[in-house]
Design goal:
Helix content is about 40%, strand content about 25%. It has about 260 residues and is an alpha/beta fold.
Length: about 260
């Protein structure tokens, strides 16, 4: 069986498209994905220049691509889910942005020439990938020499990662496995990226709102709630679960790592 095919015979790409077709609208409307503090950290770390040509890999509803468009020459966004590209186009129209274009495609085989972009970025995609190393190799390939490559993703602590991935797979069937900060940094070193710099922040979410927007199996929802209640007492997920106004909230541990292609 192909490594990208699940035991039920369904390809992982099909699961991603199915899941994010449902998530496209709620994902684009969730305010936390446009968190100003996170965006400020991203720009501080990546330091985009007016002559940069940017590639946003697994661009989703275009939030990051449209943010970069205000600061650079041009942005290209690529995603495998048609519904996400539709939301990205809607956002571009809403903001009256002209220097962005969109591509429907598989990020494991980027349809771009070598050394096409001066800044290549991806946000919240690596924990959905079966082959993150392959995607990173493709991102590096299309990045210009001395260009920058930025990865933003959840990075649980090593001693919490098994429990973290367990609950996230229940919540979102397209989740394959988050990497620790050390593992992600190591992959970037292996890809030949140098002068690595990083920033970290925590993104607060309400459990009930994210359950509504991520469409887990209904029979798994009570178990997911129970795991977060346990996290409040034991901190076993590493998500700092807590009660606020009678509802469970938690934090996603987010890391941003940027490197230079030598």
């Amino acid at each position: 069986m192909d490594s990208n095919t699940h035991d039920n015979g369904v390809s992982h790409n099909d699961i991603i498209v199915s899941q994010f077709t449902k998530q496209a609208l709620p994902f684009s409307q969730m305010a936390q994905h446009s968190n100003h503090y996170g965006l400020e950290l991203m720009f501080e770390l990546s330091d985009p220049q007016i002559d940069d040509n940017v590639l946003d890999v697994a661009c989703g509803p275009g939030i990051i691509a449209c943010e970069f468009a205000n600061n650079v020459n041009h942005v290209t966004g690529i995603d495998i889910t048609p519904a996400m590209i539709e939301e990205a186009i809607n956002l571009q129209r809403e903001r009256k942005i002209e220097n962005v274009n969109w591509k429907l495609g598989d990020v494991t085989r980027l349809p771009f020439e070598d050394e096409s972009f001066s800044l290549v970025v991806t946000r919240y995609s690596f924990h959905h990938l079966i082959e993150p190393k392959q995607v990173l190799a493709e991102m590096t390939r299309v990045c210009k020499p001395n260009g920058k490559l930025l990865i933003i993703d959840v990075t649980p602590d090593k001693d919490k990662i098994e429990a973290y991935n367990g609950v996230e797979k229940l919540r979102d069937s397209s989740h394959t496995g988050a990497l620790t900060f050390e593992k992600l940094k190591g992959l970037m070193h292996e890809a030949g990226l140098t002068k690595l710099k990083s920033k970290h922040h925590e993104l607060e979410m309400g459990l009930e709102s994210i359950l509504k927007s991520s469409f887990p199996n209904p029979e798994d929802i009570p178990r997911i709630r129970q795991l977060f209640k346990k996290d409040i007492l034991m901190d076993n997920l590493g998500m700092k679960s807590h009660m606020k106004n009678g509802e469970i909230f938690f934090y996603f541990p987010i890391s941003m790592i940027i490197g230079i292609k030598s």
